[in-house]
Amino acid sequence: YQDFFNFKISKFFERKDMNAKIVFLELGGVFLELWEFSDFKKNDGDLKDKKILGIRHIAFEVENLDKIFSEFKQRGLEVTEPKLGASGRMYSFISDPNDIPLEIYQR
Question: pLDDT tens digits for 43-67?
Answer without folding.
Answer: 554 545 666 555 667 888 889 999 9
